[in-house]
Amino acid sequence: DGTCRACCDECCSDDDCPGQCAVCVNDQCADDVSLCPPCHFCDAGTCVANQLACPEGELACCNPFANTLVCAECCHDSDCPGECGVCEFDFIPAGSCISEDSQCGPCEVCTSEFMCELPDKCADGGLQCCINGFIQCAECCGDDDCSDACSICEPWVCVGDSCTEGGICRTEPDCCIDDHDCPKDECCCAVGGSCSADCCNVICHDDRHCPPGKCCCKDGSCSAECCKDHGCRHDRDCPKGTCCCHDGSCDAHCCDHPDKDPDPKLPEIHTLPSTGAGTAGDRSAAIGAAAIAAAAAYVAGRAVRERPAEASIEEQ
């Protein structure tokens, strides 16, 4: 291009050398192992991992501090079993799994089997509670350890590693599990809640929980109005004096028990209609005479029907 510049042989700078670990030295590309990761060598500008044959059960690991391969129990933490085993290279033989408490939760220790556990059990059979990073033996560690929803675990009062006044289940005043725990005319608003008359409106889950003549509404209250929504299923779902019909309606005509109410459309009969026959005695006599006359008429009619035709003609 008409300009003057220095003449180079193979390379003028490192950028002219291909590969990961090649550098330009005296116009020639050369390998530089310092550009490779630990435990690798440089071959024609390419980093290649070193190889080492190890006994069965051991791994070929790169000791990053010595930059050499060693046969060891582990190369990384993930090679160690359990929850809290870590692979250590610093102060003990390279590549050994050790227990590390920092891998566990508060108050837990890492066992020789590399599992996180609380220390020895409480001598009195109490629960082991982790309070402020220290183990405390107590009846309860939290509210869930108490017997019911109305009991709470007394909070701990701690100064340093010394804790007092905690870990005991205490029953909350004015707390209820169900309506039996409430005064008259009040209901339990929720399990572990309080009692209130306002919560008595929600008393049913189905019609069986309601008094006769009322049905369970969608809001949990009982009302006769809600019986119209889905009809009746039993006689007890209907108002007094009516029974449950097949179509889900309530009506007195559907009552099949002997003491059902009389049909209001039919008048009640207390006396017989007047016939002009006089007193009771006269009426009895009249009835008897009518019966005799009726019998005579029946016999006479039968005789006429059975008489031969010839006799009839002769009489004419």
Give a verbal description of the structure.
The chain is 12% helix and 23% strand. The protein has 316 residues and is of the alpha+beta class. The strands form eleven sheets. A two-stranded antiparallel sheet has the order 1-2. Strands 3-4 form a two-stranded antiparallel sheet. The C terminus is likely disordered.
Secondary-structure blueprint of this entry?
Elements: E1 22-25, E2 28-31, E3 40-43, E4 46-49, E5 59-63, E6 68-72, E7 85-88, E8 96-99, E9 109-110, E10 116-117, E11 127-131, E12 134-138, E13 151-153, E14 157-159, E15 162-164, E16 169-171, E17 187-188, E18 195-196, E19 215-216, E20 222-223, H1 227-230, E21 243-244, E22 250-251, H2 280-306, H3 309-315
Antiparallel strand pairs: 1-2, 3-4, 5-6, 7-8, 9-10, 11-12, 13-16, 14-15, 17-18, 19-20, 21-22
- Share of helix among residues? 10-25%
Overall pLDDT: 75
Coarse shape: elongated
Which strand order does the major sheet show?
Answer: 1-2
> What's the N-to-C terminus distance?
170 Å
Give the DSSP E fraction (strand runs of 2 or more residues): 15-25%
Largest sheet: 2 strands, antiparallel
- What is the radius of gyration? 53 Å
In total, how many beta strands?
Answer: 22
* Main structural class: alpha+beta
Element pattern in H and E: EEEEEEEEEEEEEEEEEEEEHEEHH
Low-confidence stretches: 258-316
